Amino acid sequence: MKFLYVPWRSKYVKEKGEMKSENATKSECVFCLKFSELADDSNFILARFKYHAVILNLYPYNTGHLMIVPFAHVKKLNELNLEARVELIELTNESINILEEQLKCDGINFGANLGKAAGAGIPAHLHNHIIPRWQGDTNFLPIIANVKIISFDLNKIYKDLKPKFEELVNKSM
């Protein structure tokens, strides 16, 4: 297998193991820590709502990969109250609309990986992924070289999407 140098992923790979544990506490959780810092721009938090934040994934599968993350440190959907579950699906819907409008993507993948066995990188804290897709965005590299190329500036995507999410916050108040 060939290796492609992707230095931005090294921080994620080296994160403390307890942060990625299914039993990570709120004080060990990367999401909870980011929420408490109140440094939304540097943490790529696009917007905060009553129960959730919409954030850019720092280790994206594709350009504009978002996550909707509850403020509550929970693993499962049924641990959220009904109002929070409704907000989660509404934010998913609105986020998809924003990505389609702003990024002109051809499709969207969305969902959650519940538990480590399901592929959750941070299994102790529920989060929903929204991943924009374009015709032809998959090529031979992931198949034969186990490499995915993402050629975009996370800061630029954040600046492009932030005003739309601020509008959504203002609309929901």
Your description of this structure?
The protein has 173 residues and is an alpha+beta fold. Helices cover 35% and strands 14% of the residues. It is built from five helices and five strands. The protein has a five-stranded antiparallel sheet. Strand 1 and strand 2 form a beta hairpin. Helix 3 crosses helix 5. The mean pLDDT is 84.
What is the strand and helix layout of this fold?
Layout: H1 10-14, H2 30-37, E1 45-48, E2 52-56, E3 66-70, H3 82-103, E4 107-111, E5 128-133, H4 140-145, H5 154-172
Antiparallel strand pairs: 1-2, 2-3, 3-5, 4-5
Largest beta-sheet characterization: 5 strands, antiparallel
Shape: globular
Strand content: 5-15%
What average pLDDT do the residues reach?
A: 84
Report how far apart the termini are: 51 Å
Number of strands: 5
CA radius of gyration: 16 Å
Spatially, the strands of the biggest sheet line up as 1-2-3-5-4
**Helix proportion:** 25-40%
Q: Decide which structural class fits the backbone.
A: alpha+beta
Order of helices and strands: HHEEEHEEHH
Helix count from the secondary structure assignment: 5
**Regions with pLDDT < 50 over 5+ consecutive residues?**
none
